[in-house]
């Protein structure tokens, strides 16, 4: 495979010859590995720097709210999740009561 360069290199090379596998390998090398951080901080911005707390703005502390009011949720106000048998019946139209009775006989 011959690749024509947009602008010639300093040594005058205007074309690069490579196999199709090598052609695919070059751009694939530029793709970062999964779960790899692309930004790295050094100096005072590094995660464990001693002076980081003085340089990076901290989140303001949330105002104190009444904790008892948030915890006083009645049982009838909690969200109720249907059991898996009802979900299967609703989604796949499978009645597990019929399946159980057929398996028992």
Kindly, what is the distance between the CA atoms of the first and last residues, rounded to a whole number of angstroms?
69 Å
Quote the beta fraction. Answer: 5-15%
Report the principal-axis shape: flat
Strand order of the largest sheet: 1-2
Q: State the helix count.
A: 5
Q: What's the quick description here?
A:
This protein is mostly helical and 105 residues long. The protein has helices at residues 20-28, 52-55, 67-71, 84-92, 96-104, and strands spanning 2-4, 15-17.
Walk me through what this model shows.
This protein has 105 residues and is mainly alpha-helical. It has helices at 20-28, 52-55, 67-71, 84-92, 96-104, and strands at 2-4, 15-17. The chain has a domain at 1-56. It has 5 helices and 2 strands; from the N terminus they run ββααααα. It has a two-stranded antiparallel sheet with strand order 1-2. The radius of gyration is 31 Å and the shape is flat. The model has no long low-confidence stretch (mean pLDDT 79).
